[in-house]
Amino acid sequence: MDYDAVRAIDPEVAAALSGEVERQNETLAMIASENHVSEAVLEAQSSVLTNKYAEGYPGSRYYGGCEYADEIEQLAIDRAKELWGAEHVNVQPHSGSQANMGVYLAMLEPGDRILSLDLTHGGHLSHGHPANFAGQVYEVEQYEVDEETGYIDYEGLADHAAEFDPDIIVSGYSAYPREVEWERIQAVADDVDAYHLADIAHITGLVAAGVHSSPVGVADFVTGSTHKTIRSGRGGIIMCDEEYADDIDSAVFPGSQGGPLMHNIAGKAVGFREALEPSFEAYAEQTVANAKALADRLQEHGLELVSGGTDNHLVLVDLRPSHPDTTGKDVEEALEEAGIVLNANTVPGETRSAFNPSGIRAGTPALTTRGFDEDACREVADLIYEVVDAPEDDDLVAEVSERVAALTDEYPLYDNEEPLYE
Ligand code: DSN
């Protein structure tokens, strides 16, 4: 990753690209939605397909010269079907949000009703936040987690649905550490005759590997992003039964997008190929085992976790009980200084703001890709706790940063010699 061709033309961008490689190599990526893709996915995604227009779908394009684009998009579709078991797959959404937009556009009219999880309880902007198109075009009400337990309040959701009579219920979340009970939400959707969209953006890889239950075949629509736990090219995906295939495809193109990003679709195809290897299941299992080790150790230090632990790849710390005067932003910034990159996050019952909330969210997908095991994650939990406990202690932060450097040396990332993973 020397970026020589870029450097010859544009030294400023080349320097920033090299800086980013170094940043990723020398810090611990614990933003729960991030991962490190393989050199093969990077190569496919930066390929000559960035030059190609291919409006339409494989075998039915509005432009000539699409034979290789067709081959690659079909491979991505077929591999996705094998990974998740869906009848129909659309791999063209540019992102997870675009995937959700595709479903809304296909199935709803402006003003129709969406019932989704509140953002501060773990939902996502594209599920209907007022600042997002979904909150502006549709009528949105939101359900919550039980603030005592941190688990989805399924009974409250059922009552809310009966009262609101939504056209679609959205499940699947961005900051929810527990297994989602898809069938329970489907039963609520059936009772009120609503569609059910399950957004598995965060847990695509865990679902594909069978370490989280699957909503495919349960919910009407399953959307996701393709660069998080599934570790493929950047973008989105929609899965559904054959009966909705034409509506979904038309909503993506020409409904909401033009030319598909074929280079990203190539990255998706290669990442899906990797995820079909048996080693991917071991990766997904280790990701969850690492999150559990992280969760247990943080709790041993006296930190409070929303829901008291995790079933998936992330933990959500509520700082208020143990460190009432410390905000998520204080911790995010001090940890970044120490080389641990995660994000401040709202927690259920948030009493501060979305910009400076009371929690932090930490995930293990990227550390696991790097080779971290439970012991290494327990060590990371110790480091996080030390900084949470004294975010303003510069000497302590400097000392933690040395221990982070020892870990990044022990678990190299993009080192130009060994592939990141086979
Ligand atoms: N921004 C992503 C996340 O961090 O969860 C979701 O789109």
TrEMBL record:
<keyword id="KW-0028">Amino-acid biosynthesis</keyword>
<dbReference type="InterPro" id="IPR049943">
    <property type="entry name" value="Ser_HO-MeTrfase-like"/>
</dbReference>
<keyword id="KW-0808">Transferase</keyword>
<feature type="binding site">
    <location>
        <begin position="353"/>
        <end position="355"/>
    </location>
    <ligand>
        <name>(6S)-5,6,7,8-tetrahydrofolate</name>
    </ligand>
</feature>
<feature type="binding site">
    <location>
        <position position="119"/>
    </location>
    <ligand>
        <name>(6S)-5,6,7,8-tetrahydrofolate</name>
    </ligand>
</feature>
<dbReference type="InterPro" id="IPR015421">
    <property type="entry name" value="PyrdxlP-dep_Trfase_major"/>
</dbReference>
<dbReference type="GO" id="GO:0019264">
    <property type="term" value="P:glycine biosynthetic process from serine"/>
</dbReference>
<comment type="similarity">
    <text>Belongs to the SHMT family.</text>
</comment>
<dbReference type="InterPro" id="IPR015424">
    <property type="entry name" value="PyrdxlP-dep_Trfase"/>
</dbReference>
<feature type="binding site">
    <location>
        <begin position="123"/>
        <end position="125"/>
    </location>
    <ligand>
        <name>(6S)-5,6,7,8-tetrahydrofolate</name>
    </ligand>
</feature>
<feature type="binding site">
    <location>
        <position position="242"/>
    </location>
    <ligand>
        <name>(6S)-5,6,7,8-tetrahydrofolate</name>
    </ligand>
</feature>
<keyword id="KW-0554">One-carbon metabolism</keyword>
<feature type="modified residue" description="N6-(pyridoxal phosphate)lysine">
    <location>
        <position position="228"/>
    </location>
</feature>
<comment type="pathway">
    <text>Amino-acid biosynthesis; glycine biosynthesis; glycine from L-serine: step 1/1.</text>
</comment>
<feature type="domain" description="Serine hydroxymethyltransferase-like">
    <location>
        <begin position="8"/>
        <end position="384"/>
    </location>
</feature>
<dbReference type="GO" id="GO:0032259">
    <property type="term" value="P:methylation"/>
</dbReference>
<keyword id="KW-0663">Pyridoxal phosphate</keyword>
<dbReference type="InterPro" id="IPR001085">
    <property type="entry name" value="Ser_HO-MeTrfase"/>
</dbReference>
<dbReference type="InterPro" id="IPR039429">
    <property type="entry name" value="SHMT-like_dom"/>
</dbReference>
<dbReference type="GO" id="GO:0035999">
    <property type="term" value="P:tetrahydrofolate interconversion"/>
</dbReference>
<comment type="function">
    <text>Catalyzes the reversible interconversion of serine and glycine with tetrahydrofolate (THF) serving as the one-carbon carrier. Also exhibits THF-independent aldolase activity toward beta-hydroxyamino acids, producing glycine and aldehydes, via a retro-aldol mechanism.</text>
</comment>
<keyword id="KW-0489">Methyltransferase</keyword>
<dbReference type="GO" id="GO:0008168">
    <property type="term" value="F:methyltransferase activity"/>
</dbReference>
<dbReference type="Pfam" id="PF00464">
    <property type="entry name" value="SHMT"/>
</dbReference>
<dbReference type="InterPro" id="IPR015422">
    <property type="entry name" value="PyrdxlP-dep_Trfase_small"/>
</dbReference>
<dbReference type="GO" id="GO:0004372">
    <property type="term" value="F:glycine hydroxymethyltransferase activity"/>
</dbReference>
<feature type="site" description="Plays an important role in substrate specificity">
    <location>
        <position position="227"/>
    </location>
</feature>
<dbReference type="GO" id="GO:0030170">
    <property type="term" value="F:pyridoxal phosphate binding"/>
</dbReference>
<comment type="subunit">
    <text>Homodimer.</text>
</comment>
<dbReference type="GO" id="GO:0005737">
    <property type="term" value="C:cytoplasm"/>
</dbReference>
<dbReference type="InterPro" id="IPR019798">
    <property type="entry name" value="Ser_HO-MeTrfase_PLP_BS"/>
</dbReference>
<keyword id="KW-0963">Cytoplasm</keyword>
<protein>
    <recommendedName>
        <fullName>Serine hydroxymethyltransferase</fullName>
        <ecNumber>2.1.2.1</ecNumber>
    </recommendedName>
</protein>
<comment type="pathway">
    <text>One-carbon metabolism; tetrahydrofolate interconversion.</text>
</comment>
